[in-house]
Structures are given as structure tokens and as C-alpha cells.
Write the C-alpha cells for this entry.
Amino acid sequence: MCGPIDYGAAALSIYRLSLIFAVAGSLTMWKMRHFVIQKTKHKMSVFALKPSVNV
Amino acid sequence: MENKREIILPAAVGIVGAVVFLFAFPGLAIPTIMHEILKLPSPGTGFGFIIGPFIIMCSLVAYGLIKKHGTAVITSTILAIFMPLIIFIFNLQMPKPGKFGSIEFIIGVIILGAALELVIYLLREKGISKTIKYIISAVVADIIFLAYSMLFIFSQTVPDKYVQLTINKILIIAGVSAAGAVIIGGLLPLLILKIIKFK
């Protein structure tokens, strides 16, 4: 061990790191929203091509 | 106007980096995670795996945005100056063996930035891909920072641990540091730059 230990600080650090990654991920998704929507639409178009059944 | 941007942007990245680092790793978080949770040998793993790569990441993000030589040194110097300033202003508790905010620490961070700059300059030829360039410069700069911290910081603060260092321990610490440098210092800035420049 290099120095005194503090599990509270370690837990707080992991929580804050996950918070930072969550915020960064959200900002990334927001910036890339048009790209994501376009890709999702493309994927969804596969289902849209299925013939509809009229009863 | 362009010259102003070359100073302001690295300075802003350095300040934001210092704030984010001190927010993400409060108090004794780094030594506890490194040596108690991950059971990695001491001393120097925190410096090599987290602190060094984090500073490299900030410097390479600034360099990638401006693409001018000298940016990495400016960013690391601003980060090295602002980190102790924030620690002093908010009276933050930091791990004692690392001597955060001391002259030795500031010099180490500036050496890290200079080493990064030197390797980027040496690899400036067009033949090398950006990813390889970033990874090599991050690993070299991080290992230099680790060696400096071992010789000039940990040998004074934890001499008993420093004396107990064996070849195996040094290899583990260097390997972990190189892995940190590749992931956090080399690849993460490329991802961040890609996201920033995405249109």
C-alpha cells in the first residue's frame, strides 16, 4: 500500500466517473442524433417493407 | 486572432481537465482503487495508469483541435498550474505520497507535456497513421512521467516502498501504465476528437 486508504472516496470516485461517462454519452448521442435517427430509420424500414394484412 | 485561439483553447482544455480530474478522483480514491481494490503494486501505478494518461488525453485533445506544435506543452503546463491552485483554493485532501501540487509534481507534468510534444514532433512524417502516432507518443510520455515520479517523488515520500521495488514489480507497474497510456492516453482522445468533429 502506498498510503492511507479511503473506501468512501473510491466509491465516490466510481460514482462520479459513471456520472461523467453518462453525461458525455448523452451529449454524444445528442450531437449524433441525426445520424442515429437515420440509421434507426434504415433499420426500421426493413419492417416497413413487410406487406400489411388488411382484414 | 488565430494566435489567441492557439493559447486560449489549450488553456481552457487544461483548466477543464484539472477540474474534471479533481472532481472524478476525490481524496484518497486513486491509491485505494489502485492498491486496495485492484491489488496493483505500489508505488507509481496511480501515476502511470490514471494521472499520466489523463494529462496526456487532455494534451492530445488540445493538440488534435489546433494541430500546432507546442499545444501539448501549453495544455500540460496550464493543467499542472491549475491543479494545485484548485487544491489550495478548495483545501482538497490529496494522496500524500504523490505530492500533488508540489513543485516536483508540476515539473513532472511539464516534462510529460514536453516528452509528448517531442515524440509527436519526431513522428510528424506523413507515413504514420494518426492512431499509431497518438499511441506511441502517449506510451513514451507516460513511461517517462512514471520514471520521473519514481525517481524524484516516490523515492522521497515512500522510501521503504521504493527500496522494496523488484524487477517483477517494475515490469507490472510499467505494463499497467503502458496499457493505461494506450487506452486513456492514446485511443480516448481520438474518440473524443472524432465526436467533437462529427457533423
Observations:
- Residues 167-197 of chain B form the longest helix (31 residues).
- Chain B touches chain A at residues 20, 23-37, 42-43, 46, 95-97, 158, 161, 195, 198 (CB under 8 Å).
- Residues 132 and 186 of chain B are 8 Å apart (CA to CA).
- The helical segments of chain B are 2-24, 29-37, 45-66, 71-89, 103-122, 130-157, 159-163, 167-197.
